[in-house]
Amino acid sequence: MLTVVGVSAVILLLLLLLLGVPIAFAMGAVGLLGILILEGPSVAMAHAALVPWAEGRSFVLVTIPLFVLMGQLVYHTGLASELYDGLRAWIGWIPGGMAITSVLACGAFGAVTGSSIATVATMGAIVMPEMKRFGYDRRLATGALAASGTLGILIPPSVIFIFYGVMTETSIGALFIAGIIPGILTAAMFSAIIYFRCLFRPALGPPGPGGSWQERTDALKRLGPIIGLFALIIGGIYGGIFTPTEAAGVGCSGVLVAALPRRRLKLPDVRKALGDTVLISVMLFAIIVGGYVFARLMAVTGLTESIVQVLLQMDLGQTGFLFLLVLLYLVLGAMLDVFGMLVLSIPFVMPAVLALGIDPVWFGVFVVIMAEVALVTPPIGANVFVMRRIAPDVPMEDIFRGVAPFVLGEFVVILLLVLFPALALWLPSMMP
Amino acid sequence: MRSPLQLLDAALASTDVWSSRISAVLFHVAVDATLPALTVIVTVDVILRYVFNSPLPWGRDVNGLLLLITIFSALPHTWDTRYHIRMEVFYSRLRGRARNWADVATGVAGILFFALMGIQALRFAPYMAATGETGEELLVPVWPFMAYMGFCSLVLAARLIGNPSGEERIGLGAEAPRTEILYGETPNSPDNGTVVDGELQ
Asked: How far apart are CA A133 and CA A126, in angstroms?
């Protein structure tokens, strides 16, 4: 009976998702229905109210709206163009320099906004006309921008890390810190791909104008606010001074204090940022609550346990299991957005991850890199669609082709992480 | 004399209007009051903790309750702004009757989830009042917050009844932000190509 209900619930859930029922609604409704059948109406009703009551007051979840708000505020300050100009003065003159500048600028901007799509939309609008002006290959230009936008979810602070941390009860601070080296590694990988391609085929990305030393010194000053904000948040978390929630609050206030007096941010912008933040937070909260209810049903039916047993009996080992997950996330990423991908897979995958002795912090980094891949691969590839809006003259197919070398780069980063787990785990292990 | 179907239509239209108005007011509560208050209190608490070694003893309780109010206040409006993530790959290609059935499935699932949440929260509230349940540090009764959670959930259930297809609405009187770009997804499928430049979500 338990297995029948469990399997039926999974089938019903998939059916509802295919019909386009919002993920939160589908998981919540199927979860409650299953619990109602197995444990009776009183237990189902209690879950319906107690899960949101507990999660809605969770201090950890306060992190989500505050970091989202910080990203929204930074977005409205117009710091992105200063960031790009500052970096271009230093590296714009090397082969593929403007594309490399865009990679680094996306990494830095994404770090403080935590949104890959916002990063592509903002940086794309600034950088794309410049690259066109200097005759950059359109595949290289659009591919570099779409792929670099994904750095925003790997380099901390990142809303995806918070979401994963909440779902798996993994330290959000440790996840943030674990994302730093893989994030830098990915940015370096993307830059190297651009550099060597342009070195051997200069027509792809001719060198741009170099800045004078005076310009470079001035540029450093312009980079100050972003670097300061990043250092404040990550330094505070790494040093054990702030919890992630506190760091988010301080980050929001820091942006306001820095931007309002200099008129970089107007009150309507603040209000818009607040409105957007609330709506994003509600969307995430609904998924978390729906996911909890559904995971509870899976636990009651014992289906999660059965899947773990099957996976363990397959005797794939850590590497084989991770290879299987790469395939799973490529399929899920083709159908769902990154949050949907996580909420559907984590309840089943996480117990197997723990049973195989894989570190949950390391796995968080792995999952986020797979989410990055999903953001630029067809058919969804949300970043590519945003890029297409910014460069309407470049066919979608060309952008996907332009992204391909960077996707390969992501897989190399995953391989390096598998071979050298310390790349993700060394920094968190040094935390006080 | 109106037919039963006409009466049903009128009832649905009326539900749409009043729930939309309430949804808009609730959204303002979150945007103009509770989220700013949450941000300020978290920051003040950090400053008091690390600068004066005197954190707010009730900080966590109040922040938790402010988060709850923020989330549930905006919950109904999220439906009207199409923020809930769905798998768009097939849905965006559905037309006519198939699309209507998909919307019915969404409505049924949403109403089941949120109406049960609302009803049970409103049943819990008197129980919590009777037992005098309070926060851990903040000794104020928490039953009004449970009741508020139930009320907002029922408003969302009413929105699902009044606006079953989730047509985009900017609530009556609400100068709601229209946002298009999400973290990882667009409310209107990327397949539809409806991302608006420069609008960050």
From this structure: 12
Who contacts A372 (Cβ-Cβ below 8 Å, separation ≥6)?
A: A116, A150, A151, A153, A154, A186, A410
3-state secondary structure of B141: strand
Write out residues 99-138 of A within 8 Å (CB-CB) of B.
Answer: 114-118, 121-122, 125
**What's the mean pLDDT in A383-394?**
85
Contact A26, A293 (CB under 8 A): no
Residues of chain B found within 8 Å of residue A121, distances taken between Cβ atoms: 181, 195, 197-198, 200
Could you read off the pLDDT of A256-272 as tens digits, one per residue?
887 877 777 888 888 98
Kindly tell me if the per-residue pLDDT of B178 is higher than 80: no
CA–CA separation, B198 vs A118, rounded Å?
8
Chain A nearest-CA distance from B33, in A, is 10
- A374 residue type, one letter: A
Range from A360-369, A410-419, B86-95, B164-173 carrying the lowest mean pLDDT: B164-173
Q: What is the CA radius of gyration of chain A?
A: 22
Residues of B in contact with A252 (CB under 8 A): 39, 43
Of A29, A248, A249, the CB nearest to B112: A29
| Annotated domain spans of chain B | 4-166
Instruction: Evaluate whether A417 touches A423 at the Cβ level (below 8 Å).
Output: yes
Two tokens at A130? 């410049």
A279: contact with B, CB 8 A cutoff: yes
| DSSP element (H, E) containing B69 | helix B59-80
Interchain proximity A280–B182, CB inside 8 Å: yes
What type of residue sits at position A167?
M
